[in-house]
Amino acid sequence: MMRVIFLSLVAVFVASAPVSAEPSLALKDPRSFGYFLGDTLTREVILRVDAGETLEMASVPLAGPVNYWLELNDVKLDTESSGGGSTTYRLVLNYQTFYTPLDPRKLTIPGFALKVAGASGTGEVTVPGFEFISSPIRQLFASSSQSSGSSVALQPDVVPYPLTTGRERTAMLVSGLIALGSLIALAWHQAWWPFHKRAARPFTDTARYLRSNAGKLQDASGYRTALLRLHRAFDLRAGRRVLADDVDGFLADHPEFKPYAAEVEAMFASSRQTFFGNNVDGASKQLPLSALTDLSSKLAVAERSAG
Amino acid sequence: MTKALRGLLQTLGGMKTAVLGTVLAISAAVLALSSWMYVDKQMINADIAALRSGKDLAVDAAEAPPALLEARASFLLKRSHFDDAQQYLDQAALRAEPAGYARMLYNMANSRMRVAIRSIEQGNFDKAIPLVQLAKAEYRSALRIDPEDWDAKHNLDVAMRLVRDLPQAVPEDKDDPLETPEKLWSDLPGTPQGLP
After folding, report:
1. Which of B168, B107, B173, B154 has its CA nearest to residue A110?
2. Please, are residues A160 and B51 in contact by the beta-carbon 8 Å criterion?
3. Is the peptide bond before A194 cis (omega within 30 degrees of 0)?
4. Cβ of B176: how many Cβ atoms within 10 Å?
5. What distance, in Å, lies between the first and last C-alpha atoms of chain B?
6. Which of A83, A178, B7, B141 is 20 to 30 A from B60 in CA distance terms?
7. Which residues of A touch B162 (CB under 8 A)?
């Protein structure tokens, strides 16, 4: 209620000013009591001018010291065009008082004049000063119970605190657990150590064996070993012995290997040639060791993608 | 919908190795980075603890992180070496967060005030007055950054009562000195007398 009366008084004051009757001024002032040194006060000046009139920017106060105890820290000016061509200027002034009163004392933020340029010349709008009560934060004299030095006793220094490391520790813990989990899952999926002894990945084991022993398997007995290894993988996968005639049944039971049916057939054919025809050279010409290795790798991938 | 989902799951199943590898690579990178940052902070904290316990640890003002600048300045200011501490404040003004810089300003002003109070007790007012003036400017700067710093308010109040701020060249209630141009000439030697 008080504020409304105050604002209307200001409006009356402006309306009766002889220089420029047109612009309307409203003020939003903070409370006028209960301030200590170092406190900030924000005044808001709302000025509305009619079409064709503009606020002269040079008349807006600049940030900086106002006098020896008052500083204008921050000046913000927003411009809004409202209906009918009139313009509203919203000026936010952030003051800081450094007055150190010995008793509660009335202080005044000085007023200032805003200049408004229009077609008929330049008019002035006076923003009135603002009065507020500032109070001391300490008693004037040290009481008798205190020592004589207490009037100059300072508050202690700020002790430098160590940096907080909680965020890093959390990040380390979470990322470490995720890394460990994904590493274990990857090792299990790829049948790496310590999961490599698992029987469920016979083709992966065979593929690894053929890849890492490629040098040793170059001769005839090596070729036999490679074929035997692959046979063992088929047997383990099927859970029984798989002979050449069983291949169709095996592929029906394990559809993930179907895309490689032709190569599997070829392998069984060259196995027959090797073990029953005793013709290792002919077999390895038809299906060389590298093709066996390739086939085992493909079957290993198919085996893993199946689960 | 379910078909598409199943298809997606199958595709993902086929890419398990790739997905797991990516997750592993990212989490390992985060782990390495956070560990490095943790070790870095722990080393800074060790230096801060050493300075706090009174060890005279040299700190390079140009390179050191802001927290260490503050700790070193605090160490020097506790021992009233405010001229040596000035370089750390200058660096902090450029690099530290405002709150940290405000704390350094406050400590600096406190250090000056302690020396000033000692000088006053010894009757050496010529030495004390400029120190109090500097301290007041630093308390003000600290309060400009944090108007709610009650310790700075209290100590500024102490400083103000030792050496009061007084209206000096600028008249307090004349907000527009240009309106009284005759005052502009008052400091000139000699006054023009009459007309030629």
Report:
1. B173
2. yes
3. yes
4. 9
5. 105
6. B141
7. 152
- What phi, psi does A97 have (nearest 5°)? -95, 140
Long-range CB contacts for residues B130-135, cutoff 8 Å, separation at least 24? B132/B159, B132/B162, B132/B163, B133/B163, B134/B109, B135/B108, B135/B109, B135/B110, B135/B159
Q: Which of A185-194, A198-207, B14-23, B161-170 has the lowest mean pLDDT?
A: B161-170
* Interface ipTM: 0.74
Q: Which residues on A lie below 8 Å from B151 (Cβ)? A: 155-156, 158
Q: How far is A125 from chain B (nearest CA, A)?
A: 15
Nearest Cα residue to A117 out of A39, A40, A47: A47
What integer pLDDT is reported at residue A199 of this predicted model? 54
Query: CA-to-CA distance for B133 and B146, rounded, in angstroms?
Result: 20
For the domain made up of A2-136, give the CATH fold.
Answer: Immunoglobulin-like (2.60.40)
Residue type at B52 in one-letter notation:
R
- The pLDDT tens digits for A17-63 are 444 446 889 999 999 999 999 999 999 999 999 888 899 999 999 99
Contacts of A64 in chain B (CB under 8 A): none
Tell me how close the Cα of A3 comes to any Cα of chain B, in angstroms: 26
Per-residue pLDDT reduced to its tens digit, A83-118: 788 899 999 999 999 999 989 999 999 999 999 998
Which residues are A144's β-sheet partners? none
Average pLDDT, chain B: 85
